[in-house]
Amino acid sequence: MDVKTNNSEKCDYALQDLYNVYDPEIGLNIVDLGLIYEIYFDDIDKKLTCIMTLTTQFCPMGDAITTDTRNSLTQSFPDWEITINLVFDPAWSFSMLSPDGRAYLGR
Known about the structure:
The protein is an alpha/beta fold. It is built from 3 helices and 6 strands; from the N terminus they run βαββββαβα.
């Protein structure tokens, strides 16, 4: 699944750090899992909004994953206000895995 954005250069920069955020139960990063849906940048007010999901609404590691996501984006954009919007529509599915994610999970 491609990440929607209004600034592809800044999005690529953000994703580089998000590759270091892992779902600890699965052992795969959130980008290759397809958990990041959108990243939008408001350059005027220095606000970044990340719209993401989890593999399930009842993910026991959800708080840890969203906190790690916020920390990663704050590290990439230290002077920006970071907002994480957790959504479950569309629901995550294995079809959202990247090719690397599929290979890692043997799919």
